[in-house]
Amino acid sequence: MTAVSTRNGPEAKAADSYTVVKAKHPGRWLSAAAIIVVAALLLHSVFTNPNFGWDVVGLYLRDVSIGRGILVTLGLTAISMAIGIVLGVIFAVMRLSANPVVRTAAFAYVNFFRGTPVLVQLLFWFNLAALYPVITLGIPGLHLDANQLITPMTAAILGLGLNQGAYMSEIVRAGILSVDHGQTEAAEALGITRMQTMRRIVLPQAMRVIIPPTGNETIGMLKTTALVSVISVPELLYSAQIIYARSFETIPLLIVASLWYLLITSILTIGQYYLERRFARGNQRNLPPTPWQKLRRFIATHDALALKGGTR
């Protein structure tokens, strides 16, 4: 004989069901409340303190000289990063060369420019005429006046570009080493030259590793351009310094420069995010949704729920 349960219907469901209670996290609420209180106090202090001079900030935020400084900053960033990327690829390939002389020369370049402060390098290039008043480059009949050739902008480009090339060399080298060595061996078996292998096989696959730190270096370069103000290059910070040297509004002008730096770096960060997603397509099957896609999905879900509730 088999025992048959006499409980059925609601009584059986009540006996077999369990009450699910969500775990409580009071620490999360307390920490969130503390952060909100501190942020509110900080914002209140910032916006109510008259010494910040927010009226002066609003006045100079769109000043013509500040706009010119922004253009110089963006131009310096673009040119220096372009030089750095080209030099980085060249010296990364040299670091991986089988020729010990080439490998040692590349190592010396990277070690020198990474081992000395970029500010010292900028000052060195700016005062190059003290060492070489006439630049000949070993070419007979060539005599270049260093004072006219090495302008503040030229010194800034040389200092930033050469320094960035050393850092980009290590980034590119890491990307090349991340590619499976079997790719190179297969290319050699097919008779493909080393340069063709590097250009058509290795570097395209290494881009997934190279792109993220390159984006970070670009953002870092944008902020590093502020150092060229010491050699009188009229970039963003130097333009702000010229204004507050006349008006004595030091803090408001520094806030203006900081707001513009923050805006530009935020735009570059967004661009870096989407660029990383593009190069991650071949490595990830399902990419996480972007903030815009999350917003559209939320709006679509909300509209669908509202429509469903309205038709009842």
Automatic annotation (TrEMBL):
Transmembrane segments: 29-47, 67-94, 251-275
Keyword hit for Transmembrane: yes
Gene Ontology molecular function, alphabetical: transmembrane transporter activity
Subcellular location: Cell membrane
Keyword presence, Iron: no
Domain ABC transmembrane type-1: 70-272
UniProt-listed Pfam families: BPD_transp_1
Keywords (A to Z) from UniProt: Amino-acid transport, Cell membrane, Membrane, Transmembrane, Transmembrane helix, Transport
PANTHER family, per the entry: L-CYSTINE TRANSPORT SYSTEM PERMEASE PROTEIN TCYL, MEMBRANE COMPONENT OF AMINO ACID ABC TRANSPORTER
Name of this chain's protein: Polar amino acid ABC transporter
Species assigned in the record: Arthrobacter crystallopoietes BAB-32
